Amino acid sequence: MHRRETLKILAISTLSAPFVLNSCKSKEQETADANKAVAKSSIDRFKEEAEADKQIMKGRFFTVHEMATIAVLSDIIIPADEVSGSATDSGVPDFIEFI
To answer: In Å, how far are 17, 51, 52 from 58, measured between CA atoms?
Structure first.
């Protein structure tokens, strides 16, 4: 067996494994999995935690000039075209500042 053929087989088997495993689930299992995901997404917080989150969201990490630079660079990487908008249109600079 050649190295390229082995790599192709490994890649195909790795990518197809989730589809094969998910096809074996029953409808009851899929519903239970969806309910677990919904239960995990609901977060109960103390008032102090909520206030701390609000304070974090109010603060700014980058200066105005740095945010403008990030916007220009992200638009260079993901420019607007006929189908979709630019990175700035989708909020990439704000996301970078948040992260």
So the answer is: 44, 11, 10
Query: To which H or E segment does residue 77 belong?
Result: helix 64-77
Task: Output the six-digit token pair for 17.
Answer: 């494994």
Cβ neighbours of residue 80 under 8 Å, at least 6 residues apart? 86, 89
For 27-75, the pLDDT digits (tens) are 666 666 666 655 554 567 788 888 887 887 787 888 899 999 999 999 9
Q: What would the 3-class secondary structure string for 4-53 be?
A: HHHHHHHHHHHHHHHHHHHHCCCHHHHHHHHHHHHHHHCCCCCHHHHHHH
Whether this prediction's pTM lies above 0.70 is answered by no
> Tokens at residue 64, please?
């105005």
Query: Cα(74)–Cα(57) distance, rounded to whole angstroms?
Result: 22
